[in-house]
Amino acid sequence: xxxxxxxxxxxxxxxxxxxxxxxxxxxxxxxxxxxxxxxxxxxxxxxxxxxxxxxxxxxxxxxxxxxxxxxxxxxxxxxxxxxxxxxxxxxxxxxxxxxxxxxxxxxxxxxxxxxxxxxxxxxxxxxxxxxxxxxxxxxxxxxxxxxxxxxxxxxxxxxxxxxxxxxxxxxxxxxxxxxxxxxxxxxxxxxxxxxxxxxxxxxxxxxxxxxxxxxxxxxxxxxxxxxxxxxxxxxxxxxxxxxxxxxxxxxxxxxxxxxxxxxxxxxxxxxxxxxxxxxxxxxxxxxxxxxxxxxxxxxxxxxxxxxxxxxxxxxxxxxxxxxxxxxxxxxxxxxxxxxxxxxxxxxxxxxxxxxxxxxxxxxxxxxxxxxxxxxxxxxxxxxxxxxxxxxxxxxxxxxxxxxxxxxxxxxxxxxxxxxxxxxxxxxxxxxxxxxxxxxxxxxx
Amino acid sequence: xxxxxxxxxxxxxxxxxxxxxxxxxxxxxxxxxxxxxxxxxxxxxxxxxxxxxxxxxxxxxxxxxxxxxxxxxxxxxxxxxxxxxxxxxxxxxxxxxxxxxxxxxxxxxxxxxxxxxxxxxxxxxxxxxxxxxxxxxxxxxxxxxxxxxxxxxxxxxxxxxxxxxxxxxxxxxxxxxxxxxxxxxxxxxxxxxxxxxxxxxxxxxxxxxxxxxxxxxxxxxxxxxxxxxxxxxxxxxxxxxxxxxxxxxxxxxxxxxxxxxxxxxxxxxxxxxxxxxxxxxxxxxxxxxxxxxxxxxxxxxxxxxxxxxxxxxxxxxxxxxxxxxxxxxxxxxxxxxxxxxxxxxxxxxxxxxxxxxxxxxxxxxxxxxxxxxxxxxxxxxxxxxxxxxxxxxxxxxxxxxxxxxxxxxxxxxxxxxxxxxxxxxxxxxxxxxxxxxxxxxxxx
Lengths: 444, 444
Prior knowledge:
In chain A, 40% of the residues lie in helices and 19% in strands.
């Protein structure tokens, strides 16, 4: 048995200022249980509620080859009951206690959460700890749920051209890394997923030494620690937990284009994705510069893309940018633009490339940079007013190779990004690193 | 111990007619050893030589995720010696006996062959049987060989724009199936391959029950059987040999384009690849129709593409088509076209699409079909004059899910393909199933 690594971090999170939220600092606590469970406690005493989340360091990118969709499918099956608590009991209890619950699967993690009145925290922890190791699956449970997932895929992806385009672009953006597969899975593989696949993934990854407990709300760290020891503390760790080594993405050499033509499309769309480092893979400051770049380029109304493409040249009705930096491996920087009436996607793309060249060459003004950074920092600070958003930030960071300290430091690092660093970030926006997507209503 | 499955097939292969080759039929023999080794013997008494090939049902598509290149890397390492025969001894022996040797790795198989005077067949079988199970690898052997492979990659792919384009297109054509990865492997993964990876792949796949011995030449089946029992017969089979279940490729929904721009490119090129069934996955007759289609469309001088694009419209200096149907899973149908001076790739692509539409709508004339089929059948018959080509045909077929009987039947099935079936094959040539590639000398 390992010694309890009571490494209470005592990380200080600056409170939201001047927006009616709690003034001043909050101390985040972080510690571990002997069975390897990491725990993060975020005190928030404004209301007598708690957000209880369990995060597994296992997502779609950790799936075995040929089993795309199993991480998400298992997330569905986690609501199917255990020996101690048969199907539906957990959800019914949450509802009866007036709480909310949900779960989500990403490429790098799977998480389950409940939000309840603080006195019910122990109950939630008991239920959640029970299903960490005690899930019961039979074919009678698994087979109909597979139909539910296939229907989810039909509804959300196969019937939605913009989702199909996004899926095809992502698959094209990553030639080798499992980020190229949709989280819900490829249809012919979902169809073949079975109970044995679900149990194998569950037994491999669902363990205290592969999980992070995040509790935010009207509680104290000592209280959470005692409850965690009583509940999760009983779960046995998985020996020889495998390292998260994924297939490696080679450096891209050719610009790619994906054209999705569907009669149902009424609003054409232009998208671009570039392979870019994530916070976990970037050199210090690089990921922050990409975040500032996405904001300076893509912010609503004041972003450069909106200025040039929408306001000045009237080629687009909207234009934005995003950076998906919260990822264990290299991920994507993206651009969206919706063409104005009578403007072809080819015209819009040519104009986009001109604006990109202009920015890469001339960079941004001090005012643009200041606006971008202020926006990013303000969003982060305002987000701290949402208990669940805050808890989610920490869970996502800790499951993608970052530390709680990095989450807390982030606004300060954003403030430090220089104009030169933002200009340098254009090295990731070379055409040959990109996939361009066209969504059109007619065959193109 | 399993009973020897002496299933001598007695398959009759029609000899090449009227080209100076052996007149009349040849009887192919096929049988198995108790340890699971499949044996094919192709008598060819024209010269006193034999072609000795061992084929493993293991190729790049059988690699574990994250280990692209290990099948090919192992092929290199197979020349590094065993306990019985240290490095260089096998190759030296082949050379001293005046023979030739080689090896090749594909997505679905890896094969080793020697061509020697018939009296040396036993020696070859002894050496080859010895390295089936007895390979010795140390880091001192593996590490420098990895540099050799990386240099091979640099020479053949990274420094050759047309190879880079092919690699990027193939990676785009397959979003999930391992056929999307280059056989030589992705560079960052080759760099990480080590002795343990090579041995794991070797121990998993190199076994008599995962191999096919093909001997063509001046020998009789009974003689080969006796030799095989004495040599390969001693190799122990691998218990619980895994099924070759690869990740499934979803049906494509979006047309894709890949643009490789490189200053070194002097001759631009247009390529197109469509996901299509293989002989192993197609319904009866479909793959044969795709072969006839590739020929009718792409044959030198008389093919429809050459007629329209080169001779009539003078937009291209050459245009051809290919079908890679010998594969365990769905594979590719492709088109190449080299633009004439002053013709842009966009112009050429538009014209290609017109010709494709014309053919899909109107099909081919009886004369065109007859020419295509005659050419395919003639090529197959002429190929039978080459001992090693013949042996290679059988090995490739048997490692990609086909039977010796299918190889022998093939010309007859090609003759039977109807014009209607060729027209129907255009269902696989929908734009959304395709990747179009541009090779250009300037940024595009």
